[in-house]
């Protein structure tokens, strides 16, 4: 019914809701903020858990999924912090634990060692609890008065649904009935934690439970040793130096796209390494964690672009391309978090000059593979962002930017890449897998292999990935 005389009948209230809905009392600011802080805590803890599990998780799909979900949770955490800041004066109390029972819930999921229970805890318990809370917010609040929160909840619900779908599909493959039966006790503890908290948003009457910790009796210890699944059969192999080939002007662009896809896929070691910096660095402003996690996710995306690049040509990369984990392994086990960040910054700022990311994009354009050009185009754009993140969160602590670069170089030079030692220990033969990959690619392309390209056999034994002589990645 049109309540207004002599004006056309149009949607009221900017289309947000109808008049009746806008007239209901909804949530006071105090209650709204109280609930928002609990959603914020949940997203922040989820970000922490996803990040902490990237490195040691062997399954490639989970490693990538955790990288994505860490980023999504960091973004929602940021938005929630901002919204609380719009409604309250500092101190906002965003670092406080809103409910000790919620702390038990997230500590338990963080502390569980096996992947199956981790997935169940995350995707069947924590995420659905958060979904219920956000849905309740939408049902309880006044959509006109609290529209900015409504928007935030709707976007968060959208991505929570995506995350949950991914997780549920993983669980259906990875957790069988027997494993689930063994989880009963633990799942009960998670349910009771939520009950004791009066649900995630604290709107239900808390149920008294004696919460006995199972996987979080001792403080959490991060596992920084990267693990990979069967698609990475030779993880110490440093037998094919992609950079020396890529920057050799005498080689044609097509085979160089293979080296670029290899370099992209090998970027899987950057999330493995960055997860360690993020997890082991405490006390930074929240923006640090948001930015670093965005970068971590970009690097995971770059790895998946490499995967897609190989599959598009019809190449079975797990069999033909030996993607190593040596860079993440050495940095995580030999350097302190700040030293790892220094190495990352040193490598990434070196990607920006003419022979770096622009060059890779130009190789993509010169090749007959438009996907290679597209992927390099976005890889370049992302790396420019990463250089900015490096300046904001790493360089800023140095009096002189040159010193920041120098320190990164020094830290990287200290890293012991045990090329020979690994071979002697039988961990790898540094097999030159390049000719086989190139030959098969030529078959797919319907061309004869170029004997010079086929004969390429420069390793990383004496030349680092930045072409510095010596003892790489990003
Ligand atoms: Fe990249
Ligand atoms: Fe990067
Ligand atoms: Fe990168």
Describe this structure in words.
The chain is mainly α. The chain has 2 domains: 173 residues, Ferritin, core subunit, four-helix bundle (Ferritin); 213 residues, Up-down Bundle (Heme Oxygenase, Chain A), CATH 1.20.910. The chain contains 21 helices and no strands. Helix 5 packs antiparallel against helix 6, helix 12 packs antiparallel against helix 17 and helix 15 packs across helix 18. The relative contact order is 0.11. The site of one fe (ii) ion has 6 residues, from helix 12.
Give me the strand/helix succession: HHHHHHHHHHHHHHHHHHHHH
User: Any idea of the CATH class of the largest domain?
Assistant: Mainly Alpha
- What is the share of helical residues? 55-70%
- Counting helices, strands and paired strands, the structural category is mainly alpha
Bound molecules: fe (ii) ion
Ranges with pLDDT <50 over ≥5 residues? none
The average pLDDT score comes to 95
Total beta-strand segments: 0
Radius of gyration (Å): 25 Å
Distance separating the two termini: 61 Å
Q: How would the global form be characterised?
A: globular
Number of domains: 2
How does the major sheet shape up? none
Alpha plus pi helix count: 21
CATH topology of the largest domain: Heme Oxygenase, Chain A
What portion of residues belong to β-strands?
under 5%
| CATH architectural type of the largest domain | Up-down Bundle
